[in-house]
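The instructor's notes for this session suggest beginning with a concrete chain rather than abstract definitions. Hand out the sequence below and ask the class to guess, before any prediction is shown, which regions might be ordered.
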Amino acid sequence: MKNLFISRCVGLLVVGCAWINAGLTAASVESPDAVAAADESAQHIVLDPETGRLRIGSVELDPVARRLRFPAQVNMQEGLLEYALVTGGGKLHESLLRTDVDPMDIQIALTLLGLKGRADKTREPSSIQPEGERVRIEVEWREGEGEAAVPVRKRLERMITDQRSGESMSDQHWIFTGSRIVDGALMVRQEGSIVAIYRDSSAMMENPLPEAVDDTLWYARQTEVPAPGTSVSVAISVPQQVKSTISAF
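After discussion, reveal the predicted structure:
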């Protein structure tokens, strides 16, 4: 009972710090749904006192490595892309990866590492260059069967083809803008857009390239992407210069 109480208190404190850091003030989260979502996230946060790592739902957060990791699946191995990662309720017909992880848990983890989403993100039209801090995104999986399986890790960009050159998208850092909030609701929960390749102001993370306004350029790079349905992990790293809000835990 004591451990449950401690976990509950830690969960509420963690979510509170994350929401404040993200700019999610009382004025921006007035709706009962938003408050309930925050409380739900607080209830399933687990702190490992030995390692200092947090588990927020299915998201594992390592404050020392400044990295978070969560499960996903390959959704498309070929074809035109507008998204790199969506939820099951997102635009699956044009996304490289999909995940069943609650996007609010991802946003909380990133804000705990010091990233500041924009609670007032109303950037329209979507062609306007997004602003925010940058993150590195990698995809990990195992190739082969049983003991012969070998770990593979690739930058997300290597799995995307730029149709103009036929080469992989240039190495870059994706922009964390935080999901837009409309009527107190986190839009990424409504629309499922976590990482956008084509410009989408409702997405949590976006492609920084000017060419992101063109929805005909980006394709899944079949030679670099495992078969649809393959289980993968998405790893997101935050630069060291971004100050974390999790040092107290």
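Then share the key points. DSSP finds four helices and 17 strands in the chain. Residues 1-13, 15-31 have pLDDT under 50 and may be disordered.
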